[in-house]
Amino acid sequence: MTRTTPWHERSVVVTGGTRGIGRGIAELLARHGASVLLTGRDAATAGEVAEELARSTGGRVAGIGADLRDPDAAEVMAAEAERRHGHVDVLCANAGIFPEKPLREMTAADIDEVLAVNLRGSMLAVRACLPAMERAGRGRVVLTSSITGPATGYAGWSHYGASKAGQLGFLRGAALELAPLGITVNAVLPGNVRTEGLEGLGAEYLRTMAASIPLGRLGESADIAHAVAFLASDEAAFITGQTLTVDGGQTLPESLDAFTARA
Ligand code: NAP
Hints:
Blueprint lengths: L10 E4 L5 H13 L2 E6 L2 H15 L2 E6 L5 H15 L4 E4 L14 H29 L2 E6 L13 H21 L4 E8 L5 H4 L3 H9 L9 H11 L11 E4 L10 H4 L3
Parallel strand pairs: 1-2, 1-4, 2-3, 4-5, 5-6, 6-7
The protein binds NADP nicotinamide-adenine-dinucleotide phosphate.
């Protein structure tokens, strides 16, 4: 049996930790005792959120600005985590955007923006944290992908679906490349989770989505954070290149019976 590392010895980076799912991940891992560095585009916002989480969890949480559209930002983020914590054990590559855009109106700039944040941004974040994980001789990478793209499609979000499916192609190659270094690479696939980003899509969207989830409610950020915490744990040491869907059963139904049974 290999020795397990207690959470209070762990250094965690969460991209897009200023709100929503990322904030939920940062909060849970800080509660477990990890030292957490969270990021968002704006340094002041990230600092304020980190202070709030440090207060509410009694944990060690810091926040920095790192706009992942900028290739250098990921390097700055990884260096800052190593400077503050001495090492980097866990990267939660979570930052993402989901603007709606019908295909016939979609421009090259729209596609570039979504791919730059969701796909290239998460790849650059992983690459930037690698040297620190390599020095530590271990590491956990957990990507926040989505059911949209890997498992389902949604009209108006084809570029988003491409970015989220692309993350899984990256994950499989990276998992193989990093296995000899003791670094695992996995992903969570959230269904519809009540976050600031999702609420921006409107009350009607939220209502229809909740109605299409067999467990009868939207997900909460904590639902995703618990799955991330497992994949980031020592107990998940033998799992790599895999995905964990956390969607309340949304991708399961073959017929409307799943919903009439509930009514
Ligand atoms: P959210 O509430 O909109 O939060 C997005 C986070 O990403 C914020 O912290 C934001 O920080 C950060 N971010 C956005 N652009 C960034 C950039 N260029 N550089 C760095 N950080 C950036 O979204 P969410 O709903 O929590 O979603 C989080 C992740 O889960 C995304 O990858 C999303 O695709 C995925 N997901 C969400 C759902 C859902 O139902 N909510 C479902 C499936 C997958 P600032 O605004 O402070 O920059």
